[in-house]
Design brief:
By secondary structure, the chain is mainly alpha-helical. Helix content is about 70%, strand content about 0%. The chain folds into two domains: about 120 residues, no CATH class; about 60 residues. It contains nine helices and no strands. Helix 3 crosses helix 5 and helix 5 packs across helix 6.
Length: about 200
């Protein structure tokens, strides 16, 4: 079967397998960017992508491969390295040539080094937003506690949450995640109040 006729659903087991292979080759797996993170980001991307008419084939590949660089460097700026690592994967699996540039673009601009203007496609904006939604809700609380509690003030965490929220590209993402945003904000405000008491 020609790769152009394969549906986005059919790419999932292929991408799952390739992600596992790539993570086995990497020197240091980032646990917060492992498979469970990819699945949560994909779940969000799929919902928003369907609502907005995104190319789900581009979006699924970009989502599964967007953090490959994180397993090589512990740096927020890892989009370019992730795209570099993703390119031979797309070649190896026979991903459609005409969609590869869009996948690599979305991966390249999903980190903090890119500006909103750099995200030229709908798929890039969706991936960026859905990746950042890992910092809200219950998962966001867990991530902030693991990474920052005892190392940074709660005020810093509250400011960081707001900065990430304000940086989202799409109003649809805000509507999708508003309850989770309010939840994490209220949690840390209450924690600060109780610790200050």
């Amino acid at each position: 079967m020609s790769s152009e006729k394969i549906s986005w659903e059919d790419w999932i087991p292929v991408l799952e397998s390739e992600l596992k292979k790539e993570m086995q080759k990497a020197p240091a797996i980032s646990q917060v960017h492992a498979t469970d993170h990819i699945h949560r980001v994909w779940h969000r991307c799929l919902g928003i992508g369907r609502d907005l008419g995104a190319d789900l084939t581009v979006l699924v590949a970009a989502t599964y491969l967007h953090d490959l660089g994180r397993h090589y460097i512990q740096d927020k700026v890892h989009g370019a390295l992730s795209a570099e690592k993703a390119e031979p994967v797309l070649e190896r699996i026979g991903f459609p040539h005409e969609k590869r540039a869009a996948v690599l673009h979305a991966i390249r601009v999903h980190d903090v080094s890119a500006t909103p203007q750099d995200r030229k496609t709908l798929e890039a904006r969706i991936l960026y937003d859905c990746d950042k939604l890992e910092t809200v809700g219950v998962i966001g609380i867990l991530r902030y506690i693991v990474h920052y509690y005892g190392k940074a003030s709660i005020d810093y965490m509250l400011e960081d949450i707001d900065a990430r929220w304000n940086g989202l590209s799409l109003p649809e993402t805000r509507a999708y995640a508003l309850e989770d945003y309010e939840y994490i904000k209220n949690y840390f405000k209450r924690l600060k109040k109780e610790l200050d008491a």
